[in-house]
Amino acid sequence: MPENILDRFRPQVAQWFRDVFAAPTAVQAQAWEKISRGEHALVVAPTGSGKTLAAFLWALNNLVEREGQLALPVGSGASGSAAGVKVLYISPLKALGVDVENNLRAPLTGIARTAENLGLDVPDISVGVRSGDTPSAERARQVRKPPDILITTPESAYLMLTSKAAGILKTVDTVIIDEIHALAGTKRGAHLALSLERLDALCRRRLLRIGQHQHARAGAQHTTGVVQRTFET
User: Fold this and answer.
1) Region of residue 119 (phi > 0: left; psi between -120 and 50: alpha; otherwise: beta)
2) In the beta sheet, which residues pair with residue 43?
3) pLDDT at 70
4) Residues lower than pLDDT 50 in the chain
5) Hey, how many other C-beta atoms are within 10 angstroms of the C-beta on 68?
6) 150: how many CB neighbours lie within 10 A of its CB?
7) What is the pTM of this model?
8) Burial class of residue 129 in the structure, from the number of CB atoms within 10 Å of its CB (0-12 exposed, 13-18 middle, 19+ buried)
9) Rounded distance, CA 44 to CA 50, Å?
10) How far apart are CA 173 and CA 198, in angstroms?
11) In whole angstroms, what separates CA 38 from the centre of its chain?
């Protein structure tokens, strides 16, 4: 019997997905096949094909039962992990980063509710945004209490890597680059490639890289899919 790709996920994650969606899209199944084995992937798909979850769901799966990810008692007022950022999401536009933060609220809330229904520990996965518009007080708070998932821009990532904030990036294990087609072949892309190499050096390991490329034509299914590669952004 063929394996169901959702069987690779933890129960609270797989059950949440089954409760919300009829089945994974083709691009999601292909992406999780590669990413769950620790392979770099370039997700090529049109809008509405589930690219965000294709890139993020395995990372969320790795976070739900990680030590220190359990929900704190009500009224504690704390969020985030003192350990450091685990997932770094890089978007070429600040507005896209805000959209992604909003899009993550549903799965994070849903997975936590599903875990509670299943009698499992409820995860507390935090998300932060860092860009040129982030107030200095928020930046300082992120250094003291890093979010598990940090959404940023290529320029802000570079500035973090050249400041004391670099310390919270030493724990990153997954890098997601959105709208990679907007960066490839440009000076921003070349600059980001250097930042990614610098991040690998900081972490002293080759980080998992997931690129997202939006195909302009929703009907062009022959180019939709996941390309397995060790890409240099």
Assistant:
1) left
2) 212, 226
3) 59
4) 1, 72-80, 218-224, 227-233
5) 11
6) 27
7) 0.86
8) buried
9) 11
10) 14
11) 14
